[in-house]
Amino acid sequence: MVASKEPSVLLSHLHRADGSATFSQNGYTVIGAVNGPIEVPRRHELPEEAVIEVLVRPAAGVGGTRERHLESILHSTLRQIILVHNFPRHLIQVTLQITNTPENKNTGSKVVQAGSHLAILPALLQTAVLALLSASMPLATILTSVSIAIHADGKSRKLITHPSLKEFESASSVHIMAFTSHGEPLVVESQGTFTLEDWEEVFETVKALCHAEHNRIDDNAMQGVDGKGNMLEFVKSAMGEKVAQDLHWHT
Amino acid sequence: MAAWVERKQSLVYGSDDWLPRKLVLVRAGGTCPAPFQRPTKKQKASVAATASSSTRALNFTLHITSHHGIKSQSPSPMASTTPQSALSFPRETFAKLSPHPYLRAHLQPTSATATPTRANGRSPSQFRTPHINNGSLTHADGSAVVRIGDTTVVCGIRGEILLTSKVPGWRADKAAAEPSSGAGYNEIKELDLLVPNIELATGCSPAFMPVIPPSTLAQDLSTKIYSLLHSTNLLDREDLRIWYQPPDLSDPDRMDDDSEDDEETSASEIKAFWALYIDILFISLDGNPFDAAWAAVMSALKNVRLPKAYWDPDREMILCDDSVDKSKKLSLNGLPVAITALVFKAKEQAQSKDKKYWILVDPDTFEESLCDESVTVVVDCSEKKTRILSITKSGGTIVGREEMKDIVKLAEQRSTELSSILNG
Amino acid sequence: MPREVEPSVNERQFFEKALAENLRLDGRAFDQFRDLELSFGDEFGVADVRLGKTRIHTNISAEVTTPYPDKPFDGLFTITTELSPMTSPHYETSRPSDPEILLSRILEKNLRRSQALDTESLCLIAGHKVWSVRADVHILSHDGNLIDASCISVLAALQHFRKPDTSSEGENVTVYTLEERDPVPLSLLHFPYCVTFSFYPSTVEEGETVILLDSTLLEEQLREGSATIGINKDGELCQIAKLGGISVDAVAFLGCVQVALARVKEISTFVIKRLAEDAKKRDKGDLMAELRAENDR
Amino acid sequence: MASTRTSTFVLPGDRLDPASLPSHPTLPLKLGPGLRHIPPNTITPTVAGQLCTDKRKNAVWVEFNGGRYIPTTGDLVIATIQNSAVDIFYASVSDYAPKATLPQLSFEGATKKTRPQLSFGALVYARVTHANKHMDPELECVSQSTGKSEGLGPLTGGMVFDISLGMARRLMLPKPVEQGALVILDELGGQGVAFEIAVGRNGKVWVNSNSVKGTIAIGRAIQETDEKALKIEEQRKLAKKVAREI
Amino acid sequence: MPLDTSTYSLALLRLDGRRWNELRRLTAQISTQVAADGSSYLEMGNTKVMCTVAGPSEAKGAGGVRLGNDRADIRVSISIAGFSGVDRKKSGRNDKRLMEMQHTIASAFAQNLFTKLYPHSTISLSIHVLSQDGSLLAACINACTIALIDAGVPMHDYICACTAGSTSSYSSNDETADPLLDLNTMEEQELPFLTVATMGESDSVSVLIMETKVQVGRLEGMLAVGVDGCKQVRAILDGVARARGTKMLEGSRM
């Protein structure tokens, strides 16, 4: 089946978690749950800030070194956006369960896919942020993440936004970036062979997709702007809908 | 630590030696809270409040005297008013008590002539000197010892034979399809022919106790090495293939003594692969594990000599030739070099909006404990035009386009320095 | 980790009173199940079961490996169940908890020991190459009765799963990609589902037992005993697990078995219906894809 | 009310238009939940929700629903006793969170000799007296000024039901019908259903009536109103149905 | 290798010479270890287990103290000796089958003992399996019962257990199949069987575990035989306990 590049999300659907989100894009589906702030065992507690625990669980098999790597990227990133100093000596648990990955024609039967584990990073980041928003966790800012693949053969060069797994694997270089809603770069994972110019072009492209300059609170009418592919707009509309539903009674 | 900001002008360097030997902490007015410890946030707030509003302010003044420890050498005006209650700490104690202001004091010297220097005496963009020793392990097919400052890594590579008949999903027709044809079959990746493994639990640092399961950092580093090995296409897959050319019965003279043109004949088949087990052992760790580990892997890969292996149809097994002459080196695609830099922010709190920061390359453990944002760039300058092979960053928002440009430039410099050693 | 939250005294007492009046907190009858929902993923072998607020997601995968030396003709079939902090913060990932062990044991007995999946059919070359089928049971949300829901989820996913087609020539096995040959379903011999009963001592009559079906989390926390009966629609019992707890009259217990049998017949029909609906949807999807492909040409 | 309040949707880190904030000549600006002040003069939301301002009170806050209850001074909560020490009880306000302390003497008429004996799992209706991120919260079951319980204290009998934090807030509004579009309780009362109710800001509601059936029906009606986001008309219908059943 | 049950139908005797409703030799000793608060040694045929009881004692250790616990906590540990089976197999600490057995025994006795009499305390049961020849769980439960009697922990009634099987293989719906009582290892491997434990002389089932496939129609017969077997077991254990009690009374009289 053809995976949709358009993101979709379901919010606050797990009843026992404080916040939850199911996010799908590009054939990846991730279910995220956030619990916290809750009690933390003494030996782990930090006196000045909340402990963040990130757990990435693969759809099939048990987590290995790749999941730990993703967890460490997520951990250092989420620590930057969660207001950890608001909850000293507490724990914030973020559990991300991957439930669907795009079919890989070559390794269709393989339990653990050898590489390309980075391809799922944008989905993981986005799910984590949406689940945190659903949990009403105080955040400094939100982040949005986009992956871009560059296909270059000699002279011509093509940038593909939200590449499919196939495009991801055959690209000459792939770039995953996440920006805050203020347009600051928070995560960069670039791989392959590329030049500084390539990278800068990707940087600007992703920045534009993650961040709209006119994204002002008073500017609700998005006139003349192609909201397609703009992750910030997506998060905004998804959350806006949820808030409107939650506060239907609120005049 | 608002008090630090106000009193920073009293940071004075000794005349002959720029390197601070001893820091003297002078308390002006009031009594020192005992036991002395890092004030909690609440206390800090109150310190700041009193400092700004009352005359009995708690001010910490910082002196740096030369290693002779003559306190009177440069008395600051503030300190000289109440010299009787001076509390002096050795440098190490001060670094432990309040590491963040300590490092900042070094990077933000008061006198205009002094250049920002890190606590370890290096300039922010100065790397530690690398030392590399190749082939010191006899039983490994390739090995290297890399020392960068106090970080020492041993890397040993062993090749093991993986028979295609043992590969569960092996298909002869798949191997024929070249990877250039779309999202091709990359056997090095699919068959896991490169197996890096990092061992940190060697007692290399107090943070990693020996004989425990691999820490998160070790798993994290292994994954980084693993994906870099694949994403750079460093190895030629032909190097890892073991072919078999069935003897041409019509021409009995031509046995498999010469395998140069075997690949052209359709009858030849891949009988086995070399799987390279890359074990990376940290002997000591003082920051920047990735750069050192990667340099060790590169150096060891360059050092690898795989014996000539061939399929013996009678015994139905792979045999290896003992002679060194027939063994082959790996042909590596370029010479990637990794550099890591951290961002040190003037304010301790992660969420502060303060734009003051320093980029510190090749950090040591002390610096790593004080910085959140880290950037790793892998470049290959073996050809004319620099190829960037990987950029990763996380943990902060400081490094943007411009900063990255500078870091890439630093990486290029470092690359030339390291390449000469790696190639030498 | 923080420990599990226990119900308050008020909840305990109120629940007891309600049972005495033949009432359940969510208004169900004692033998009534919550609404069962089953959906399948885009990929083969993905089933998502909802039983009230309990939600279980199962993912089946398969790869070729070497068999165990003592069972050269049998493929491998493993079921993993791990309760993650997603379900409740008190579950630690490193240490399995009691409910987790009991759940995995029951699934193991019910599905593996009863040979629901014919492991001999997974053998490709005796002693060398077999399929290893793996069921990863992800518990997304826990509001009681994990066992019944997990069992439905795994069996539905197994029925939905297709493994790549293979052919073997002597010692060589060729595993075809999905494009080359349509994947094939697993060989399942029978479909044993589980029904779990919760027991409470009756406050009305001394020695009598109140029996609830499909209990919620609160009902599970307050129960004094339980029994899980695994049975297929043909009336073959696959396992019974009444692991201690209050004792139940033998005759009453035999009654439970009959209830379980009736319930399992319902579940079987339901799952088959859902599978058929999914297959229909897929056919349509395939047809559309073919048409599109033709248009492209 | 509507005339003085405006609401816009905000996300964490959004830059607020200074014009959207109330400016009162004399009163200091009050920052409510969901906002933070970054010195010198930036105010940004920390949660997703509706930015609400009250010009008369010169207050601004973010209205949101969801997440975990975080104790705030002055909130009324339903707490579960977990443990007791020499002169305090430890009570749980929200699951898995650090326990709150409840002095054994802060009950109406409690002295060293006549303090309540509360065992594990007992419910109390209490007020949060101290809430601070560095310390565990503190509760009381007596008004400090009057020495009276004012409705606080142990809750016996009845049943607790979980509701969303937003629903708890709606139930606690001074005028739930006008401000919260919530009529279910009034309607039930209007139908002649007699019951007691205590609402905890920590997302719990305690209901007691003279029959088990009635308590279940009322509790479930409140939950249904919350989960299905029932409109006023639907709430009326539901109330009628419940009253008929009882 | 299917067990040859054909001879059974002729002579109505099992391979070890027993009739269908015959228990193996069941012997038990009480107070075998002086150091323990209660102890027992029990043999069911060639299945031999030892059980010791420690407690009720004050709950101690981290994680052991559960706040607001108004009753005694029962902990069970089973260790299987390496030489107990036919082939030496060291079972791991995380063997799920053992953990399930431990949970079962703890949960059965939690309902049988008057645990409310001992708030904030622990009763530890430690079982050592010396030899295995079928009916392992049943033997463990029986050993625990008399060890707990020895320890003097008040209980409602005996919990007695035994196994019951059926001569029909699971696939056949053979009407002539007979139920069997108290299976040994060979029979357990070939025939469908269940382990049942009842309370005292009642028909009240405390534990019922079946792990093999069987036609639902067979269950009633198996269960009836099993429950009857439990009553026989109870009579034997009761005899052991009474003999011990008499001896103690005699001792105290002197």
TrEMBL record, chain A:
PANTHER family: EXOSOME COMPLEX COMPONENT, EXOSOME COMPLEX COMPONENT RRP46. GO terms for cellular component: cytoplasmic exosome (RNase complex); nuclear exosome (RNase complex); nucleolus. It is found in: Nucleus. This is Exoribonuclease phosphorolytic domain-containing protein. GO terms for molecular function: RNA binding. The keyword Heme does not apply. GO terms for biological process: nuclear mRNA surveillance; poly(A)-dependent snoRNA 3'-end processing; rRNA catabolic process; rRNA processing; U4 snRNA 3'-end processing. Residues 12-138 form the Exoribonuclease phosphorolytic domain. Keywords: Exosome, Nucleus, rRNA processing. The keyword Coiled coil does not apply. Belongs to the RNase PH family. Gene3D superfamilies: GHMP Kinase, N-terminal domain (3.30.230.70). It holds the Pfam family RNase_PH.
UniProtKB/TrEMBL annotation, chain B:
GO terms for cellular component: cytoplasmic exosome (RNase complex); nuclear exosome (RNase complex); nucleolus. It holds the Pfam family RNase_PH. It is found in: Cytoplasm; Nucleus, Nucleolus. The keyword Nucleus applies. Keywords: Cytoplasm, Exosome, Nucleus, RNA-binding, rRNA processing. PANTHER family: EXOSOME COMPLEX COMPONENT RRP43, EXOSOME COMPLEX EXONUCLEASE RIBOSOMAL RNA PROCESSING PROTEIN. This is Ribosomal RNA-processing protein 43. The lineage of its organism: Eukaryota, Fungi, Dikarya, Ascomycota, Pezizomycotina.
UniProtKB/TrEMBL annotation, chain C:
One of its GO terms (molecular function) is mRNA 3'-UTR AU-rich region binding. One of its GO terms (biological process) is nuclear polyadenylation-dependent rRNA catabolic process. It comes from the Eukaryota. Keywords: Cytoplasm, Exosome, Nucleus, RNA-binding, rRNA processing. Residues 32-164, 191-262 form the Exoribonuclease phosphorolytic domain. Pfam families: RNase_PH (PF01138), RNase_PH_C (PF03725). Its main location: cytoplasm. One of its GO terms (cellular component) is cytoplasmic exosome (RNase complex). It is found in: Cytoplasm; Nucleus, Nucleolus. Belongs to the RNase PH family. PANTHER family: EXOSOME COMPLEX COMPONENT RRP45, EXOSOME COMPLEX EXONUCLEASE RIBOSOMAL RNA PROCESSING PROTEIN. This is Exosome complex component RRP45. The lineage of its organism: Eukaryota, Fungi, Dikarya, Ascomycota, Pezizomycotina.
Automatic annotation (TrEMBL), chain E:
GO terms for cellular component: cytoplasmic exosome (RNase complex); nuclear exosome (RNase complex); nucleolus. It comes from the Eukaryota. Transmembrane segments: none annotated. CDD domains: RNase_PH_RRP41. One of its GO terms (molecular function) is RNA binding. Residues 22-154, 157-228 form the Exoribonuclease phosphorolytic domain. It holds the Pfam family RNase_PH. It is found in: Cytoplasm; Nucleus, Nucleolus. Keywords: Cytoplasm, Exosome. Its main location: cytoplasm. InterPro entries: ExoRNase_PH_dom1 (IPR001247), ExoRNase_PH_dom2 (IPR015847), ExoRNase_PH_dom2_sf (IPR036345), PNPase/RNase_PH_dom_sf (IPR027408), Ribosomal_Su5_D2-typ_SF (IPR020568), RNase_PH (IPR050080). GO terms for biological process: nuclear mRNA surveillance; poly(A)-dependent snoRNA 3'-end processing; rRNA catabolic process; U4 snRNA 3'-end processing. PANTHER family: EXOSOME COMPLEX COMPONENT (PTHR11953), EXOSOME COMPLEX COMPONENT RRP41 (PTHR11953:SF0). Belongs to the RNase PH family. Component of the RNA exosome complex. Specifically part of the catalytically inactive RNA exosome core complex (Exo-9) which may associate with the catalytic subunits RRP6 and DIS3 in cytoplasmic- and nuclear-specific RNA exosome complex forms. Exo-9 is formed by a hexameric base ring of RNase PH domain-containing subunits and a cap ring consisting of CSL4, RRP4 and RRP40. This is Ribosomal RNA-processing protein 41.
